[in-house]
Amino acid sequence: xxxxxxxxxxxxxxxxxxxxxxxxxxxxxxxxxxxxxxxxxxxxxxxxxxxxxxxxxxxxxxxxxxxxxxxxxxxxxxxxxxxxxxxxxxxxxxxxxxxxxxxxxxxxxxxxxxxxxxxxxxxxxxxxxxxxxxxxxxxxx
Length: 141
What we know:
Low-confidence stretches: 135-141
Radius of gyration: 24 Å
Largest sheet: 3 strands, mixed
Number of strands: 3
Order of helices and strands: EHHHEEH
Strand content: 25-35%
Structural class: alpha+beta
Helix content: 40-55%
Strand order of the largest sheet: 1-2-3
Number of helices: 4
Mean pLDDT: 77
């Protein structure tokens, strides 16, 4: 079951090549589009904040946590089945990364002296401490 058994995320045999963006390929139109999109997102966020959508939610959560702190309780969350399942999967997650090579190549900054370097990660295992120490996997009710 997904809620009680470990979720294993494996990444193996990955080769990543990173290069700086060649400025010749960037057009003024691309820069303008990106700036407009960023500005549009900022304006939408500001408008939502001013209209009170975000402010009201932040204030409501703050007041609830303040009342819970005064009562000495942790506020109860209204979690759905999917929220509980995702939380249990994350709590039981094991991440295994093996044989990953990241190479940086720079051929454009100083064309007379191109350079590259790389880093290889042989193995990395990340898991919840309770999963590593117990045969029982955590289960959130």
